[in-house]
Amino acid sequence: MPAITYNFAYLDEQTKRMIRRAILKAIAIPGYQVPFASREMPMPYGWGTGGVQVTAAILGANDVLKVIDQGSDDTTNAVAIRSFFETTAGVATTTRTRDATIIQTRHRIPEAPLRAGQVIVYQVPIPEPLRFLEPRETETRRLHALSDYGLMQVKLYEDIARHGHIATTYAYPVKVAGRYVMDPSPIPKFDNPKMDDSPALQLFGAGREKRIYAIPPYTRVVSLDFEDHPFAVQAFAEPCALCGAKGVYLDEVILDDKGGRMFVCSDTDHCATRQAEGHTGSMSAPYGEGQP
Prior knowledge:
This is Alpha-D-ribose 1-methylphosphonate 5-phosphate C-P lyase. This protein is of the alpha/beta class. 26% of the residues lie in helices and 17% in strands.
């Protein structure tokens, strides 16, 4: 059989130009949801088709690509998308945040600070922050046009009335450049402060919903809150059990059926880098032990 050949990064050049035009408009109007003609991809909706299309449109032959899924480089979604671009584009890939020029992510922002020149592409399932408060698309567009976000403030106030604090822990709404309220994708609210004044370009792609939006570098991003209930990120009572990191987002790992558990860095690259530097945690083995 003849070898299967693909256009660079799978998408045809006309589609890439269409997506790049949408990206340029999104950068010009931070936080605004730009419609685009989302294409069928060789993966089901909900598995990152929007992010993949954005990445395919901006990827160049000299780029270095990193793909993460909830902070991990080795979960199914991350491995599949990384393999997809290795096959269709032949670009270099990495698991090191600092070495990547493009980072495609699902539900996390890396712990290592992003730098100027990097692009982070978010996979977004539902781009409309008002969707569960007002299901009519025509109405949510009107609310955005009028900058009328009272519904969102009421939702946050209801959290306080019921729980004594704002209970939203992920997809926490933000206001971009003092204008549009935006869904930052289902990242934990722990990551929201990393979006503010970031030197990296942040792009958001929703394939099923056919929307692209963006946060240009060094843009003000503010999480919604109240004066008497200011925004605050989650706090963890103990450090990472493998590298001893504090002030990072941790995942809970169940060890047995007797209640044994540990907390480890969600960002696998950050954790591995710290271990390589000699940092240890309460349940860590010497770095490299057991490796050939």
